[in-house]
Amino acid sequence: MTRRHVDRLGDLTPDEAAAVGLAARAIAAGLQALSDVRRVHTAVIGLHLPHFHQHVFPRYEWMSPEADWNALHELPDAPRGGDGEIAEFVDRLRPHLPRSLS
Fold first, then answer.
1. For the chain, what are the domain ranges?
2. With DSSP H G I counted as helix, E B as strand and the rest as coil, what are the percentages for the chain, rounded to 5?
3. What's the whole-number mean pLDDT along residues 28-42?
4. How far is CA 59 from the centre of its chain?
């Protein structure tokens, strides 16, 4: 998500677009380093919120190719955790992120 309000990807300045790409890459590298992801995907959908935001989500080794990309949370083997476990994972992810995100 950008600090400045924009509705669509094409509304970003070149510098904002570069920062979004670098942030997505850093998050992907962190996820790859910390878990058994096969791929990290991104999507800009923007159907419900008129503000640009980019989703970054993992595809784990154990996921079938037919698994719906946006339904990871519904899969029985999907990683889950309470507030403490999520905070711990974020703490481990933080060193992989650019300062602007951490």
1. 9-96
2. 40, 15, 45
3. 93
4. 11
